[in-house]
Structure formats: structure tokens, C-alpha cells
Specification:
heterodimer; A: 251 residues; mainly alpha; Four Helix Bundle (Hemerythrin (Met), subunit A); 80% helix; 0% strand; globular; B: 223 residues; elongated
Chain lengths: 251, 223
């Protein structure tokens, strides 16, 4: 158990994190590149076309991974917020700063690819009576709120903890929002376009799995890269950063 | 702790009694926006009736944003918020008192006026009791969840737009269930689980929000 507490305490040190995470960043980066390349080419070129949707279903290989990661990013955000408030660990805030733009971009991309997919299959870009569309849109607004709050509070430490309070409140609320929107759509009217339950054969399913894992690796890469950059920005006046800039070959 | 709660409630009520226009302004705003909608929807009775529930709930949420924006501002400016934190590190009881009075001044008042607002939008009389009940069950959640947003933005100048951006997504369940209760009553159906959901959201937020709000206020005071 000793090493857990040691690692936990070390995680609080920006300098340790910066050095320690360099190989992880490279690893995640390469893994993301390889997996996303393999999964995308496999899914977009080699996988057989859907018997009903034709080639248009192929956007699933981009759409589903982005949306899954967008939701996971918010969960991570809430967890980081909790760590920040409970243990006052500065690195948790660095993580939050790193995640918000990525999560926002993934949510927006998920909505966009969903709309592009919806046009040929459902015949519409947007459908208010579909619960998943609406709750993803709400997720985007939750990200916007966090971003706006961070921009609005000049003092960095207060901004961090205000965002943490909000991220946790959002995390508690997400299941309620999701449930209420689902309930609303079933009550409102029978969903005009419900997504077909796709019982996928392995040749179609495996590339999706590869891309989902690849997208998580991309998440890891972006998060670590942004965290390390943020660390350098925050610690720019410390001697180790000055030393690092002067002699980048010596870590 | 009950002393802190009671004392805070007394203080807030006294302040409320001395600044009656602050209480009435949001309410006047609400009536005004209902007027705008009645005009915008051509004033046709069947048109108004069909949209009344949605319009009313959306406007009530927006009105609450106006009222919430200022709820901690004065105490923040004159330092009494800081005094609250000098008494205890986590002033949950006085915060609860503050939130309860905030609800009295907005949610409860709006609930009392809701039958009138419903009549203005041409809702039939048989729906009005359910409209009243829906606002009674749902409005505490609006005030209490909204206060979380107000507590983290109190230090920001011109926080109005940000407050809405933070809080409105979290109030979507209240809107959905609230509108559903009224629309079902309009169709002659019993309200179903929606009314219980509204009440459950309110109870849960009354329990959780004082903790979140005092954490948020603490953050705002330290900047």
C-alpha cells in the first residue's frame, strides 16, 4: 500500500508530473495514432456496407467514439473537481483546465457527426424528440458554462475551485437531466425516428471497438500534453522550468 | 444551529420588508414578459392555451435568473457574507435560511400569482389548481439549484449571462416535468409521476444545495 500513498503525494508535484508523464504522453500519442488509423481505415474502407443504410452508416466509426469520450471527459472533470475540493491538489485543477476544451470539442464533433448521419438515415439534421441528441446538446452547454466561468474569474485559484463546485453539481445532475429528457421524449410522442438496434457482426463491430480505444488514447494524449504545457505556464518562474528552457536536453 | 437558522431567516425577512421593490421587480418583469408572449402569439385563445405551460415555465426560470443574480450581491459588497464565515467555517444553517427566504421572495410569490398568470394565458379554470401545485412543487428546486450558480458568480461583475449559462442547463428537468404536469391536466389526465419528480427534485436540492452554496460562497470570498 505504501507505493499508492507515495504516488498520490508525488502526483501533487508539478515537476514530478511533468517529467514522469513524458513517456506516457508519447505512448498515448503513438497508440492513438495507430489505433485511430487502423480503426478508421478498417471501418471506413474495409468493413462491409450496411445492407440498409449503405455506406452512410460508416460515420458511426467517428461518431460513437467521440460521443463516448465526450461523456467520459465530463466524468473525469467531475472527479478532478472532487479531488481539488477535498484534497486541494493543484494538479487536479491543471487536469480540469486540460479537459474542458477537449471535452467541448468532442461534444461539438459528436453533435456534428450525429447531424450528418441523421440527414441520410432519419431525413433530418436535428430531431428534438430524440433524447440522446438533446442531452448531448445539454452536455455541450454544461461545458460552455465551465469555460465561461473560468474566463470570468480573474483569480486563478478561485476560478479553479468555482469550476470544481460547478463540475460536481453538473456531475450529480447529468443522470437526472438524461432521465428527464428520455422521459420527456417518450411522453411527448413516440419517437419518430428511433435508431435501429444494430446487431452488428464482428467485422463491423471490431473497428468500432478499435476506434473507441483509440479515441480514449487520444483523450489521454491531449490531456497529458495540455497538462504538461499548463504546468510549464504556471511554473514559468521556478528554477526548474528556467533550467529546462535553458538546457532542454537535460531532463 | 437552529439559532443560526432562525436568526438568519429573521434578518432576511427584515431586509425583504425594507426593500419591497427588489421583491416586486422580478414579479412585474414576469407579468410583462407574459404580456409580450400573449401579444407575440397573436392573442388567439386556443394558441395561448396550447403554449401556456411551456411559456410560463420558461419565463419563470428566466425571472428567477434575474432575482438570483442579486441574491448574494449586497451581502458580498457590505461584508456581511464574510461575517457569516467568521462565525463558522461551513455556515450551512444560515445559508439554508438565506435560501429559504430567497424562495419565499421569488418562488412562493410566483406560485401565488401562477393562477393569475395561467388565466392571462387563457388556461381553463380546471387546470389552475394543478398549475399552482406544479409551481409549488418545482419552484424550490429552481431557487436552490440556482443559488449554487449565484454563489460562485457573486464576485463577478456583470454576472447575469454567466449565471444563466451555468444554471439553466441544470434546471431543464424542472422545466420538463413542470410543463408535463400542466399539459396533462390540460388533457384531463392525472399528473402522474411528474409531480412527484418535481417534489423529489426540490427536496433533494433543499438538502444538497446549502452545502454546495456555502462551498461556492467560500470560493467567491477568497478571491
Amino acid at each position: 500500500m505504501g507505493w499508492i500513498t507515495t504516488t498520490w503525494h508525488r502526483l501533487g508535484s508539478p515537476r514530478w508530473f511533468y517529467g514522469m508523464m513524458a513517456p506516457w504522453q508519447t505512448g498515448f500519442g503513438i497508440a492513438a495514432l495507430v489505433l485511430l488509423a487502423v480503426g478508421s481505415v478498417w471501418g471506413l474502407v474495409w468493413a462491409p456496407a450496411d445492407y440498409q443504410q449503405g455506406d452512410s452508416f460508416r460515420i458511426i466509426y467517428i461518431h460513437v467514439p467521440t460521443v463516448i469520450v465526450a461523456q467520459s471527459a465530463y466524468m473525469t472533470l467531475g472527479a478532478a473537481g472532487l479531488v481539488l475540493l477535498v484534497w486541494r491538489m493543484k494538479m487536479a485543477d491543471v487536469a480540469m483546465v486540460a479537459i474542458v476544451p477537449f471535452g467541448m470539442a468532442m461534444t461539438a464533433l459528436g453533435l456534428f457527426t450525429g447531424a450528418v448521419w441523421g440527414r441520410p438515415t432519419w431525413g433530418t439534421w436535428w430531431e428534438w424528440t430524440d433524447a440522446r441528441l438533446v442531452s448531448t446538446l445539454i452536455l455541450l452547454f454544461l461545458y460552455f458554462g465551465l469555460h465561461a466561468l473560468r474566463q470570468a474569474i480573474p483569480a486563478a485559484e478561485s476560478a479553479a475551485r468555482a469550476c470544481a463546485v460547478l463540475a460536481i453539481a453538473g456531475l450529480v445532475n447529468i443522470p437526472i437531466i438524461k432521465y428527464s429528457v428520455e422521459w420527456w421524449t417518450t411522453l411527448h410522442q413516440g419517437s419518430t425516428f428511433s435508431m435501429r438496434r444494430i446487431n452488428m457482426p464482428a467485422v463491423m463491430y471490431l473497428p468500432l471497438l478499435v476506434n473507441v480505444i483509440g479515441m480514449y488514447c487520444l483523450f489521454g494524449y491531449v490531456m497529458i500534453a495540455r497538462m504538461r504545457t499548463e504546468i510549464l505556464r504556471r511554473e514559468r518562474d521556478t528554477s526548474w522550468v528556467v533550467e529546462l528552457v535553458r538546457r532542454p536536453d537535460v531532463r | 444551529m437552529s439559532g443560526a437558522l432562525g436568526g438568519q431567516i429573521r434578518r432576511e425577512l427584515l431586509l425583504l420588508a425594507r426593500s419591497r421593490t427588489d421583491v416586486l421587480n422580478p414579479l412585474v418583469f414576469l407579468f410583462l414578459t407574459v404580456l409580450l408572449f400573449a401579444l407575440a402569439l397573436d392573442g388567439r385563445p386556443e394558441n395561448l392555451r396550447a403554449h401556456a405551460a411551456g411559456v410560463l415555465w420558461a419565463l419563470v426560470l428566466l425571472t428567477n435568473m434575474l432575482a438570483l443574480d442579486g441574491m448574494f450581491r449586497r451581502d458580498y459588497d457590505d461584508g456581511s457574507l464574510e461575517q457569516m464565515f467568521l462565525i463558522t467555517q461551513s455556515p450551512v444553517a444560515p445559508v439554508l435560511g438565506k435560501l429559504l427566504v430567497q424562495w419565499l421572495a421569488t418562488g412562493a410569490l410566483i406560485t401565488l400569482c401562477s393562477p393569475l398568470l395561467g388565466l392571462a394565458l387563457n388556461l381553463p379554470a380546471k387546470v389552475l389548481p394543478m398549475l399552482f401545485l406544479a409551481f409549488l412543487a418545482g419552484s424550490p428546486a429552481v431557487s436552490f439549484i440556482g443559488a449554487i450558480g449565484a454563489s460562485v458568480t457573486v464576485g463577478i461583475r456583470r454576472s447575469g449571462a454567466i449565471l444563466g449559462l451555468l444554471v439553466l442547463p441544470m434546471l431543464i428537468p424542472v422545466l420538463i416535468f413542470g410543463v408535463s404536469v400542466v399539459n396533462r391536466a390540460l388533457d384531463g389526465d392525472p399528473p402522474g409521476p411528474a409531480i412527484y419528480w418535481l417534489a423529489a427534485l426540490s427536496v433533494a436540492s433543499i438538502m444538497a444545495a446549502p452545502f454546495a452554496v456555502s462551498a461556492g460562497l467560500k470560493v467567491s470570498l477568497e478571491q
